């Protein structure tokens, strides 16, 4: 499926670039560092969106969507509250609200923890390897001294726009896990910033050559964002502090690309836990009335093509809410749940892939498998779009709405349009008639 957000981000990039260039915002090194720290605090937004919020409302302490305010914090936007705009994949924009423009329960002091994705330990680091492999990036351990953190190299350039290049990341096995994670973030940042060359498949831009200092400042900035937003202290923080102490201005770096690269690293490593919105994600199915003839569980399992032991394991793993060994017939909700989970397993999903696919869905997994699909580019379940409405139905609804509003003027205009169309049709028909013999 084509990436729906490309135009939106390109347009936003142009507007943001113009604003930053004309205003010279964040060109002072202290202001640049303050922006990075702001983006770290708003970890419930992608880095680029956090920058947009800072541009709109400097000093903002916390923001969230109306849904998150209500569901997670028991708050709602005040009447007349002015929303802030961010970009999102279903575009072009989504609305969020500053905490001071909401009312309700007290906001927890550790509000950022609501969006934490877990500690970065050895097992978490190991879980990144298959994610990297999915993007054609090899991980290699190297036995190096303390000063050698790691590197990234291009093994093969992307042959075309539909195929990713082949990359290899070296990480020092002698460093502690936080340092290894920081190395990974830094090297991936180099790649996503385009320092190794373009790669359309991985959305890596083609950029003009940069000197070593500018490349390192961009990569260290992106790595700092990724590490700090995930609770990892890194040498990037010291690097940036030293840079601010020795340079009064920040030139020749692309803020947009820094924010974008940090977001791409978080997405690749599945570190995102951003604020949530209602449309157009998969809605919870409405429980149907009791089935007249309940389905037998073994018939459903056989129809799905699922082994009985696999159905039992779904319950043992905490995914299926009922034990197949303890039920004989299924109501509609149970059948939907078994079909949804069982179909994924029958299609070949192993436990790790199943965990990834179910991430972000609410339990119990009672979704109608016939009405939803998984969008791999967005890593999200979506509903199939409704069938297009007939033009006759749309017209009838519009006319009924005009009648309900008493909009006589628009109805007369519509009648005039119909009369004109009939006249033109009559003339066209008259012209096509055979001449008398």
Walk me through the structure.
This protein is mainly alpha-helical. It contains 15 helices and 12 strands. It has helices at 6-23, 29-41, 47-56, 66-73, 122-134, 177-192, 212-229, 235-246, 255-268, 297-304, 308-316, 332-346, 351-358, 391-405, 408-432, and strands at 63-64, 75-77, 84-87, 93-98, 102-104, 137-142, 150-156, 166-172, 295-296, 329-330, 372-375, 380-383. The strands form 5 sheets. The chain has a 3-stranded antiparallel beta sheet with strand order 1-4-3. Strands 6-8-7 form a 3-stranded mixed beta sheet. β11 (372-375) and β12 form a beta hairpin. α2 (29-41) runs parallel beside α7. The relative contact order is 0.08.
- Multimeric status of the protein: single chain
What fraction, in percent, of the residue positions are helical?
A: 40-55%
Strand content: 5-15%
Q: From the alpha carbons, calculate the radius of gyration and give it in angstroms.
A: 28 Å
